[in-house]
Amino acid sequence: MNPASIARLVEMLEAETAALRGGDLRRATELAAAKTEEVRAFAAAAGQPPTRELALPLDRLREALAANRDALRDAVALQSRVVETVAQAVNRARASAMPGYGRGIRAGGSLAVSVRA
Q1: How far is CA 3 from CA 31, 73, 92, in A?
Q2: Fewer beta carbons under 10 A from the terminal one: N or C of the chain?
Q3: What is the pLDDT along the chain (117 residues), one digit of tens a residue?
């Protein structure tokens, strides 16, 4: 484990966190493979005892990990709300298309949803 490998992991986490906070899920997804590689490299070297020169980089890594965890949690919560909103819209559209008193039968109705994070 060395300060440079920790710095690369911190940079990757900060880039993903920025993408998530900016609502750019595509960019966050693109960063996933590189982030996984940086985590693997860090984990491979993690068995070595930390030295004094690693104290500050490791503190920065802890902060980046906490921010990334929070951004991931928020992104998952947002996706859950979007899925729930779409499901409710579909259910309402289906309910309004059902035949009943005062309603005509509509075949092939469409539903459009636009969601921006």
Answers
A1: 21, 28, 55
A2: C
A3: 788 889 999 999 999 999 999 989 899 999 988 999 888 888 887 777 778 888 899 999 999 999 999 999 999 998 899 899 998 888 888 877 666 554 554 555 555 556 655
Give the per-residue SS3 of the chain. CCHHHHHHHHHHHHHHHHHHHCCCHHHHHHCHHHHHHHHHHHHHHCCCCCCHHHHHHHHHHHHHHHHHHHHHHHHHHHHHHHHHHHHHHHHHHHHHHCCECCECCCCCCCCCCCCCC
* Prediction pTM value: 0.68
Angle of helix 3-21 versus helix 55-97 axis, rounded to 10: 30
